[in-house]
Every structure is written in C-alpha cells, then in structure tokens.
Amino acid sequence: MKFVDQATIRAEAGNGGDGCLSFRREKFIPKGGPDGGDGGDGGSIYLVVDEGLNTLVDFRHDRLFRAKNGQPGMGRDRFGKNADDLHIKVPLGTLVYNEDTNELIGDLLTKNEKLLVAQGGFHGLGNARFKSSINRSPRKTTKGTFGETRNLKLELQVLADVGLLGIPNAGKSSLLRAVSEATPKIADYPFTTMYPSLGVVRVENEKSFVIADIPGLIEGAADGVGLGIEFLKHLGRTNLLLHLVDIYQDKEDVYKDIKKIEVELERYDKNLSKKERWLLLNKSDLLPNDLIDELKIYLHSKLADTTKIFIISALTGAGCTELTYVIHNWILDRKNK
Questions:
Q1: pTM here?
Q2: Where is pLDDT greater, at 108 or 3?
Q3: Which of 175, 273, 317, 333 has the smallest CB count inside 10 Å?
C-alpha cells in the first residue's frame, strides 16, 4: 500500500433542525394550545483512532465528510430526531490542523482516542417552549443553528521507538526484514523504499519494540531534495536513530557517507541531530575481518569517542540478534529513568 502522510479534508457538521409552529386542533377543541416540538441536533464529526490503519491513503479520494442535519420539530409535541454523529477513522499518530489558520487542533496518540473537529448545530425550539401565563398562544419559534465547517490538514508521523536512516541502498530495508516480520521491498538499486515502513522487533515473549525504515536520504534532503523533508520528519518521534552505512567501499567513502547524513540532520533540525544515534556498519559479509578492524580504527579516529559502532550483515543476519537485545535494553533503561 502506498504511504500517504498528508491529506486535506473538509468536515461539515449537520445543522440543527428548526422548531415547529403548531397548535392543537382536534374535534371539540378548536382552540387548543401550542404543540410545536423542538428540532433535533445536527450530527457532529469526530476523528477516531483506528490501530488497523497506517496510512492516510483513503483520503486521497474521499475528502468531503458531511454529517446529517437534525430533523425539524413536528406538531403534537413531537421532537425532531437528533442526527447521528459521523466518525472518521484515522491512524494512530495523526496530527490535526485547521488548514485555514494552521492551528494545531489535536495530536492523536492513544488507542481509540476521539477528537471533535466539527460541532453539530443546536436544535431550534418549537412554539410550545414559549407558552406562558401571559402568552397562551405563542407564535414564536427558533431555527436550528448551523453546524461547524472546517478545512482540516491531517499529517501522519510514524510512531516508532527506533528509526533507520542512511543513504540509498545502505541496507535499511534488508535490516528491517532481518529483525522483524515486516516485508519491505528489497532490490539492488537506489530508492527501493519509497515510503516509511514499520516493523515490530520481538526480542522475547512480551519484549518488543517498533522500528521504522524511511527512504534513503541524499545530499540536500534538508532542503527537500528527493522529498527529504517529507522523510526526515518521520524520525521526529523516534527515541533512537540507527545510521546504516555500506562498508563495501573505500574507508574514506564510508566516512563521507556518514558525514553526509550528519550534515542533513543538522541542517533539518538541531534537536534531531542531537538524538542518540548509533552507527551500524553493514555488509560485513563482503569484507575480511582485518579490513573491518582497520575501518573501525579509522572511524574511531575521525568520529567522537562516544560514537557506538556495531558490525552487522543484514543479508546473513550476523550481529543482528545481538543488536536487537542491546537496543531493547537501551529502551528499557531510558523508560526507567
């Protein structure tokens, strides 16, 4: 399924039903009192979190959501029926903005959470409501109020504990396949991944975490090159970044690839660049151990002493299981602090 992370919709709540002007007219009662009933309330519109959804793709075609109007009041003191509220299902992690003012209306982060986005109109009053000791035949009624109308911008940010990043073809999708049950597309050409993928990594029974694979970043991603900004924003809610690097190249080129990503993170968001980030040297199955050791020594001399470096092979799975345990323990320690 294509990943769509932004959508605009129009929400039109229902109008309230008008109150009724009516008098009781029956045989032998030619001048009965007022019996006009109230109208019904218009339907409101809610956004509701559905954990079964993971994209906003459904809103590409269905953009207008209109709740029904309340039923008008009727004679014989009959009230109009309230219109049903309209519930629109959205994925967990959806940000909701008023498109006209760019105001953030809500951030849906909880299972089954509901957010009122358009209030239905209030019912009108029938003339029976205005009967009094001094006015026994009121002809006054009120109309139902209009329901709210809002233009909404929906934005979905991937919710994950861990985010994968790296240049195209670094092996992020292969790693996601190796450690989770996700099945992202894998091929030997750049930009195989065209939208973020989520995978649940199960370490042991009842021990798991969520990992997100975003499309590869290229130079200028912070400026939107290659839809870079659209991809980078999905890392905003992750706690840990795993930076994958293809080591089947000259060590100088390995270092250049690392710096490219660091520069783009710094330019896009300084807070994002300060997140915990581990370096994963991938495709270790293609190099002998002595060259890998030489590369590690070289990178330690060029990078900060605190940089954590792991040697893995997403293809063969070497080092991947051990990595998932380290990640899980890191997440637990962080939650306990």
A1: 0.64
A2: 108
A3: 333
